[in-house]
């Protein structure tokens, strides 16, 4: 079962955040803050999930973000890559992705994730949100409410095929890309390919997966902090593990496809599938031309290499 983004303990709104300071254990950069925190939730891990409304460069070189939580309350976050971090590489990385935030178009919807954030109530009554470290900040290229809708939907489909909506006891398999959606078979997956394709890319984000699956166990820093830029994923160490898992998944899928062939019903489905594929091709040609055509051809050619091919696709998207 995926975590619920509406869970106010794991994903609190600004008002429910603990006040500064950070507990000593989570602020390596500030050894002076050893005072005990009266807040019983002080050592708990949580993640603020909010939309980014405005990005402003301040005179001192830092970046101010106006962010809005689920209740549409607003708060401010200051990102300063020249701050107190002891890690020069992390600082350089932060400078890069924070400067990228300024180049995004206003219509790009963005969601910010802030691990273990604390609040500071300013004299004017506004809330400023602080994180211990820029590694606790992550920006997803998706709107806040779309992210809520998407995760709500995935939770509803926990025991159901994401493609056909049936829960009929037939074996199901995780989508080889995101492993967040269950499908009976390739045909069911293809039924919602046009809907799931973009979501699938987003859901592969290693940190989003951890938040939704395993959070809050010992999750003090994002593994890939900053802006979720897809091409950086190929450099991620977790990639190899994922690929191994995928191979297993795909083998399972193949085995089950064989089982399905024994059933009359599924033989009919397979015939239908050929027709559907032709239809898909026509549609895709109209919509997206070369890109989708390549993808369909890839799907047909080799099912076992889904992830590799999807990654190539991602790169194309980003460089485009
Ligand atoms: Zn299905
Ligand atoms: Zn997927």
Task: Tell me what you see in this structure.
The chain is α+β, with helices and mostly antiparallel strands. Among the domains are: 46-141, OB fold (Dihydrolipoamide Acetyltransferase, E2P), CATH 2.40.50; 146-215, no CATH class. Helix content is 40%, strand content 14%. It is built from nine helices and ten strands. The protein has helices at residues 88-103, 144-156, 186-191, 193-203, 206-213, 238-261, 264-288, 290-301, 306-319; strands at residues 47-57, 63-68, 74-79, 111-115, 118-121, 127-130, 137-140, 173-174, 182-183, 226-227. An eight-stranded mixed beta sheet has the order 5-6-3-2-1-4-7-10, sandwiched between helices. A two-stranded antiparallel sheet has the order 8-9. Helix 7 packs antiparallel against helix 8. The radius of gyration is 22 Å and the shape is elongated. The chain starts with 46 loop residues before the first strand and ends with a helix. One zinc ion is lined by residues 175, 177-178, 180-181, 196, 200, 203.
Largest sheet properties: 8 strands, mixed
Helix % is: 40-55%
> What's the Cα radius of gyration?
22 Å
Give the assembly state of these chains.
single chain
Overall structural class, as computed from helix and strand content, comes to: alpha+beta
CATH topology of the domain at 46-141: OB fold (Dihydrolipoamide Acetyltransferase, E2P)
> Number of helix segments?
9
Sequence of strands across the biggest β-sheet:
5-6-3-2-1-4-7-10
**Helix-strand topology string:** EEEHEEEEHEEHHHEHHHH
């Amino acid at each position: 079962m995926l975590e619920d983004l509406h869970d106010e303990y794991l994903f609190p709104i600004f008002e429910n955040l603990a006040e500064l300071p950070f507990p000593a254990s989570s602020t390596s950069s500030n050894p002076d803050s050893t005072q005990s925190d009266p807040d019983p939730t002080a050592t708990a891990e949580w993640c603020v999930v909010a939309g980014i409304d405005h990005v402003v460069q301040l005179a001192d070189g830092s970046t101010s973000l106006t962010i809005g939580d689920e209740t549409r309350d607003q708060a401010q976050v200051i990102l300063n890559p020249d701050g107190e971090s002891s890690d020069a590489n992390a600082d350089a990385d932060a400078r890069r992705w924070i400067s990228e935030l300024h180049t995004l178009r206003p219509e790009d919807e963005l969601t910010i994730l802030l691990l273990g954030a604390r609040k500071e109530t300013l004299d004017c009554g506004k809330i400023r949100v602080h994180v211990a470290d820029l590694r606790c900040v992550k920006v997803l290229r998706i709107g806040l409410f779309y992210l809520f809708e998407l995760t709500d939907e995935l939770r509803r489909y926990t025991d159901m095929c994401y493609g056909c909506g049936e829960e009929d006891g037939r074996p199901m398999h995780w989508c080889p890309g995101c492993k967040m959606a269950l499908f009976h078979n390739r045909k069911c997956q293809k039924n919602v390919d046009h809907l799931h394709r973009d979501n699938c890319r987003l859901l592969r984000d290693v940190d989003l997966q951890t938040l939704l699956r395993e959070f809050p166990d010992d999750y003090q820093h994002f593994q890939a902090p900053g802006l979720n830029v897809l091409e950086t994923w190929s450099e991620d160490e977790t990639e190899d593990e994922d690929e191994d898992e995928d191979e297993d998944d795909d083998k399972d899928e193949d085995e089950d496809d064989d089982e399905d062939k024994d059933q009359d019903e599924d033989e009919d489905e397979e015939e239908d599938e050929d027709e559907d594929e032709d239809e898909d091709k026509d549609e895709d040609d109209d919509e997206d031309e070369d890109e989708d055509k390549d993808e369909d051809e890839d799907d047909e050619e080799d099912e076992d290499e889904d992830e590799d091919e999807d990654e190539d696709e991602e790169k194309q998207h980003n460089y485009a």
